[in-house]
Design brief:
This protein is an alpha/beta fold and 166 residues long. 39% of the residues lie in helices and 19% in strands. The protein has a single domain (9-130), classed as Rossmann fold, CATH 3.40.50. The protein has a five-stranded parallel β-sheet with strand order 3-2-1-4-5, with helices on both faces. It binds 4'-phosphopantetheine (PNS). 4'-phosphopantetheine (PNS) is lined by residues 13-15, 42, 78-79, 107, 110-111.
Amino acid sequence: MQVQPSGVIAVYPGSFDPITNGHLDLVDRASRLFDRLIVAILRNEAKKPLFSVEERLEMAREVLKPWTNVEVESFSGLLVDFARARGARVILRGIRAISDYEYELQMALMNRRLAPQIETVFLMAGEDYSFLSARLVKEVVALGGDVSGLVPALVHERLRRRLAAR
Ligand code: PNS
């Protein structure tokens, strides 16, 4: 087997609107498997995000500081183009329940067609987070529910402020 001198770089793409403890759990697992991990936040205003890309970048960078081989960037256009430009050989995605599978399979196969040299690797979310999604977190906070333990404290505070202002 040929080992590349620079090690294996993985890209972990997503909306991260906002980053949750489920994402952190996946980053923690992946940071021990890959030499470098790039958390890549998609620039896509069509999804009507709650937080701007700059806010999401700032929050993610702050909460991911403890992981020294993890960086956070934003990207637009095709994910495989971004991954290629960063020298990444792996696209990382988390799988929570079987319901994630079909969407993830479609993306993985399309990405493989576009860039056969890049492998999509799935990691299972921790069982404490297998029901967790950024969408549900936003809904619960908007309705006054408690999501502590599901998002980092900084994100919880930002969510409360943003949703209270609405
Ligand atoms: O967190 P999400 O919203 O499920 O992430 C989806 C994401 C960002 C991984 C996906 O939409 C994506 O990769 N978009 C970039 C555009 C692209 O490459 N599309 C073709 C991939 S099938």
